[in-house]
Structures are given as structure tokens and as C-alpha cells.
Amino acid sequence: MLPGVYYKMSNLFCPKCGKETDIFYDNVCSDCFIGKKILIESPDIAYARICPACGAVFKRGKWSLKENEITTIIECVNDNLFKNKEAANLVLNLSHKQLDHSRYRVHVDAQADIRGAPIGYSKDIEVRIHWDTCETCSRISGGYFEGLVQIRADKRIPTADELRKCQEIAQDVALRSQEKGDRLAYIAKTESLDEGLDLYVGLIKLGKQICKAIIDVFGGKYSESPKLVGQKNGVDLYRITFALRLPEFVRGDIICANDKVIEVQSCGKHISGIDIETGKRFIENFNDILEMRHVGKRDNAVNAVLVSDEGKTIQVLDPETYETIVLKRPEFLSAEPGNEIKVIKTSRGLFVLP
Q1: If DSSP codes are grouped into helix, strand and coil, which group holds residue 217?
Q2: Domain check: are 272 and 200 in the same one?
Q3: How far apart are CA 330 and CA 342, in angstroms?
Q4: CB–CB of 112/91 below 8 Å?
Q5: Separation CA 248–CA 251 (nearest Å)
Q6: Distance, CA of 218 to CA of 246 (rounded, Å)
Q7: What CA–CA distances, in Å, run from 213 to 52, 79, 148, 150, 287?
Q8: Integer Cα distance of 338 and 98 in angstroms
């Protein structure tokens, strides 16, 4: 007979133990072939590390994102099972029972074969949870941060809605970074100030990502100011302040942009709005506008009487001097002569508002 090949015979006996058998494995019965072979080796007790604050799990030498506690327990047992390399067709079943807040019992049942000979394994393993504070929670509780994002506005105070939206953007950026495995991408502290918002971030690169994400929505610009705060293993450690400035203009501002008078509807990478002289839509890249200046706000608009509509021009009664003023007819005008319309006086003259 050839080694490793089994043969089916009749009325034969194992030459090693004398048991009658009709199937041989390496010239012996299955019991003698399996002998002291072990399908799986495992400890009686396995240990899992979970952060009590955030639920992060320490495995394979590093802290990972929170997962279901049962998943952690089963994975812990799996990692502590050392399987026989000769085994094939392994079927493994793990069932668990919680003993108390920090202990589980996991029953392991396995079936496989080694060169065709069946082999099984059954054992209870106790899993004990060590509740350890993870690196991220430890840093947060200690107030650790690498960067400070200062959100302000150019030549004005940011609105409450702008600051709320900026904070939502920052939280979203941090969450997406954490989901990609950057566990230190957290916002350690948020301070609301009269002049804006300060965000203390756990990673320098998170500060940059937050600035870029806010600028994508609102426009504006930011600068970086590094400060040496110490050394670690001979490497200089810096904290960086990101000075983010939102654009000067917001919805409802009346501005002069490239010699056009615009009511701003949105201001981000592009300024969009209405040319209130012609009524045409206006949109330009923020950085392509050579000259911009503030000339009024919609809140300052007053009522005036539309005297006549001549098609291409209109006549409006000046609300202060009561003189009749001739203006170009804007496309958005739908009022009839004799009706009141909204107008605003600027350094560029009187304009009708949509």
C-alpha cells in the first residue's frame, strides 16, 4: 500500500491496535492514524480590550473603531485558535454565553479531516474583557490637541447660521476621517466667541481638511501659523493655528463687482446673485473679480412709487426728494405704474430690488 492513500477492504484488522476495519489510513485504522493529532489548540482563557468611553477595540496591536461586543468576543476567540495545518474541510461553530459584565463563555465545536480521516474538537473558552481607556479618549480627556481652527469673517462678524453650518461641516469631516481609520481625527473642544468660533482638533491634517471643506461651501481663505511646543523622540512637535476668514459678503448684501451692482444670493467659490440694474443673473468665480466693495444691504431698502413703465426704462419717485428718476427697466420688474416697489439708494445711485 502507498503511504497517505486509504483502501476499502473486508474482514481486515488494524496491524497496530488489532481493531477490525475496512478503511485504512497509512496502513492503520482511523483511530491509530489520528492518534494524538490535535485539530485545534487554544488557551482556557482569552482576553479582549475594549475602551469603556467610546467602545474602541484593541486588536492586532492597535485600537480600532467600535464594533458590536459579541463580534469582538467571537473574533477574540477566533484569533486564539491555532488550527492544525494538515486539517481540511474545517467546519467551525462558536456559541457564546455572557457570564457577567466582563466575562463570556464561548463554546467551540469543530469538525474537519486529515487526509480523509475525520477529526473533531470541542472546548469551552472563557473570554475576559479588560476595560482600558484608548489612546484617543485619553488624549481627549487630557485636552490634547495639535491644531486650532479659528473661524472668523472678513470685515464683519459671522452670522449664527454660518457658524452653525461651519460646525456641522467640521464634525462631518472629522467623522469621515475616523471612519477611514484616523481615530485621532477628533474635535477636542469648541469655543463660541463674540468674533467667531474656535475648534481645537486632534490632528494637524484634520485642521487643513476642515478649512478646505468650509471654503468649498462659503469661499474665503485661510493661513497657517506653527508654534513649537516641544520634542518627542528627538522630533520637534508643533501646534498650528489655522486662521480661516469667511468672505466679506453674505446673502442680501448689495455690492459693486467689476462695475456691476449685484444683490448677493450666495457667496462661496463663486459669487452668484442678480444684477439689479439689468435684472440678469450674475455668477463669477470669487478670485476672478478684480474689484468688489460693499454699497448697501437689502435690509436698508425702502418703498417707492413706480410712476411709469416705458418698456426699456421706468420712472420712479425718489422716496426722499420726491423727484422723478429715470432708470433702466430690470427684467424682474412685474409691478404696474402706481404700485409701490422696493428700492435702495447707494453711492452708485438708486436701484430697484427684485
Answers
A1: helix
A2: no
A3: 13
A4: yes
A5: 11
A6: 7
A7: 32, 40, 15, 14, 17
A8: 82
The three cell numbers of residue 210 are: 476642515
What is the distance between the terminal CA atoms of the chain, rounded to a whole angstrom? 99
Assess if residue 138 is contained within a domain.
Answer: no
Mean pLDDT in order along the chain per 10 residues (354 residues): 49 76 75 78 93 88 85 92 87 93 94 84 94 87 90 91 95 92 87 95 94 88 84 74 90 86 82 89 81 85 91 90 91 90 88 90
Length of the chain: 354
Which three cell numbers, joined as nine digits, stand for 133? Answer: 481607556
Are residues 153 and 219 both part of a single domain? Answer: yes
Find cell 481486515 and name the residue. 12
| Type and span of the H or E element at 72 | helix 69-79
Burial class of 185 by CB neighbour count within 10 A (0 to 12, 13 to 18, 19+): buried
Residues 177 and 104 in one domain: no
Q: Residue 197's domain spans which residues?
A: 143-246
Q: Answer for the pair 14, 28: CB distance below 8 angstroms, yes or no.
A: yes
Look-up: residue for cell 486662521? 243
Same domain, yes or no: 181 and 209:
yes
Place of cell 467602545: 55
What is the tens place of the pLDDT at every residue in 90-135? 899 999 999 999 999 999 999 988 877 888 889 999 999 999 998 8
Domains identified in the chain, total number: 4
Reported as half-sphere exposure (CB side, CA atoms, 13 A), residue 78 has a value of: 13
Among residues 28, 37, 35, the alpha carbon closest in space to that of 5 is found at 28
3-state secondary structure (DSSP) of residue 174: helix
Contact 161, 153 (CB under 8 A): no
